[in-house]
Every structure is written in structure tokens, then in C-alpha cells.
Amino acid sequence: MQNLIECRDLVKTFPGCQALCGVNLQIPGGRIVGLLGPNGSGKSTFLKLCNGLLVPDSGELLICGHAPGVETKKVISYLPERSYLNDWMNVRQMIRFFEDFYPDFETARAYDMLARLSINPSQRMKTMSKGTREKVQLILVMSRRAQLYLLDEPIGGVDPAARDFILNTIIGNYNPEGSVLISTHLIADVEQVLDDVIFINNGRIVLCDSVDNIRAQQDKSVDMLFREVFRC
Amino acid sequence: MAWNLQSDRPIYAQLVEEIQRRIVTGVYPAGSRLPAVRELAVEASVNPNTMQRALAKLEEDGLLYTQRTSGRFVTEETERIMQAKEEMAADLIRRFIESMGTLGYTSEQAMELIKKQKEEEQCKI
Questions:
Q1: CB B41 to CB A171 under 8 A?
Q2: Are A190 and A34 in contact (CB under 8 A)?
Q3: In angstroms, what separates the C-alpha of A70 from chain B's closest C-alpha?
Q4: In what order do the strands lie in the sheet with A148-152?
């Protein structure tokens, strides 16, 4: 099967800082992958490159065989690190907006998830707490039938109960041929749902393996391993 | 029912153990149909691929079988289930004797202690 993400020697430099230095990576279909690394390691930069929000300095990046562009935006559902929703809109208006924009958006699923988290569809984004706004954003992103979900810190601001709901939403909803790439540093919470983990540090990939391999070989959780590898 | 998964052992191995425990204790009775992979994965909050792997292992061991189109079932061979139960019991006993060994008891002394404790509990009633 074709890899959903394939990149070779990917380099991205910002003034005074090398964000990614030579990243090689393949992500096949049907996987849930954790992109783990300390703050400033290049996680968000990588996701932005996949979305075409940033352009690489050199190297090659293909999403389902295409360079990032209109075609790839159709197949990627992206949860950015910060909110981009219009805060004067209410949830119902946001859903209509997404429905118009993405042909693969499933309205019924969005309303079902809202009901399960007791979020009122008439509430405006502006009057919501940070956690609720994050939940709405994730519901919008997960209601698409995409090939590739790129989730940048999806559980950072929500309480542990909602975190479980969100993770279950991810396992229960992603398309079996599609893949999910989750960037986070809340490793203990996500490692049970991951197939593979990628450790990234200073713009380089330092480890890429399956969760069960790590546990079997190291006799410790991915969370423990992360604390060892990135000890300050 | 809760799936208590520990964080320092492979998830896949723990799922195999838990499903096996449910089969021998009759939570999933002989011949019954198992919930779908994704349903089980959501219930246990684990990755569907990992759950799939655990089920494939149990199928290989003869505790489950797949009927094309209609799903996955617990074996109807009760002897096979009894055998799995005995294996699990033997494993528990072996681990118990090992732990008692680290406290300095021989297996005979451990058996004496079990008997003594059982008698004391009966006296209380």
C-alpha cells in the first residue's frame, strides 16, 4: 500500500533556528502514530509542512503521493495548535461552515458527539471555556471522513474524563485505511491507543518504533522511556 | 467491566490474558459471538490494531474462531477452554510459589500456611 506520508531529507529553517534538519519518515495507512518530543523539537513545524502552511527549504514531502496543495487538503483533517474558528459564530454555524467546505464532513456524527459531551449547539465560541472550545474544534475535525488526521496537541486543555472520550472518539471514528498522527507531550494518556511512536528532538528523529516493541524490549512504558531520553 | 492495563508490559500480551480470563470465567461463554474488534478496542481504550493482534493470537491458540461474514466466536470445545483454565491456574500457582520462595518458604511450608489460614477463617464463621 502507498504511504500516506513520505518525506526525505526534509529541512526547514527559521531565522536563527533550524526547526527540522533532515527528517526521513514514512507513515503507512491504518496506523495511529504519536509524534512525541519536548517543547520546540519541531512537532508543530512538521505538521504545518504536511498541511502546506509552511514550505520546506529542501527535501521532499509527499502526502498520498502528492506534494502538499489543494488535493492533499481534501484528504487531510488538521487540528492546529491554536484556535482559528470565528469566535462570533455559534457551534451550529461552525458545523454549517464545515459542511459547506468539506465534502466528507458528516453532520450527524458532529451533533452526536456534541450531545455526548453536553455542548449546546447554540453557544457562541466566544463565551466558551478554553476546554470546551478545544472539544468543539476536535469534534469538527473528527467528523470528517479523511484519509489522514493530523492532530496537534488534541488533549492539552481538556479534563481527564473528556480526554478519555476524545481518545475513544479517535479510535472509534478513524477510517481503517486512514492514519492518525497525534503530536503531544501527554504521553501516558495516549500511549495505549498508539501503534507507533516517533521521538523527535532538535529537528531530528531519534526513535521510531511500535509501542509494544518498546515495552517488550525496555520493560517500561513509552512515558518512562521519554523521560529518560529527554532528561533535562 | 474494566480492563486494567499496566503501563510497563506490552499491551498486546495483557489483552490476550484478559480475553482468555473472560473466556474461562464464562463472561464470554463457549460458542458465543465476540463483540467487533473496534467495539472491544473502544471498551478497552486501546488501538484497534493491537486488539486485532490479540484476537488473532487467541484464534491461533484455538480459543476463538472466525466465521467468515458473521464474526468471531468463542470455541465450542469445552475441553480446550478447561485446558486454558488449568494452564492459567498452573501459572498462578507457579508465581505464588515463587513469591513465597523469595520470603524463604518451601512449597510444603506454603501449603501448610494455606491450610492454616483456611482453618482460621472457618473458625471465625
A1: yes
A2: yes
A3: 31
A4: A76-79, A148-152, A179-184, A32-36, A196-201, A204-210
Q: Which of B11, B13, B42 sits opposite A171 (nearest CB)?
A: B42
Number of structural domains found in chain A: 1
Q: Which residues of A47-57 are buried (b: 16+ CB within 10 A; e: fewer)?
A: bbbbbbebebe
Contact state of A215 with B10 under an 8 Å Cβ cutoff: yes
pLDDT tens track for A124-159:
999 998 888 888 998 999 999 999 999 998 888 788
Q: Is the ipTM of this complex over 0.95?
A: no
> Which residue of chain B has the CA closest to A221?
B8
The C-alpha cell of B12 is what? 498486546
- For B26, counting Cβ atoms within 10 Å of its Cβ (0-12 exposed, 13-18 middle, 19+ buried), the class is exposed
Whether A83 and chain B come into contact, CB under 8 Å, resolves to: no
Number of Cβ atoms within 10 Å of the Cβ of B1: 8
Q: How confident is the model at residue A58 (pLDDT cuts 50, 70, 90)?
A: very high
Residue range(s) defining the domain that contains residue A100: 5-229
CATH code, domain carrying A102:
3.40.50.300
Sign of the CA dihedral with B67 first, then B72, B78, and B80 last: positive
Is pLDDT at B114 greater than 80 in this prediction?
A: yes
Task: Determine, for residues B11 and A219 on separate chains, whether the beta-carbon distance falls below 8 Å.
Answer: no
Q: Which residue type occupies A52?
A: G
DSSP class of residue A193? G
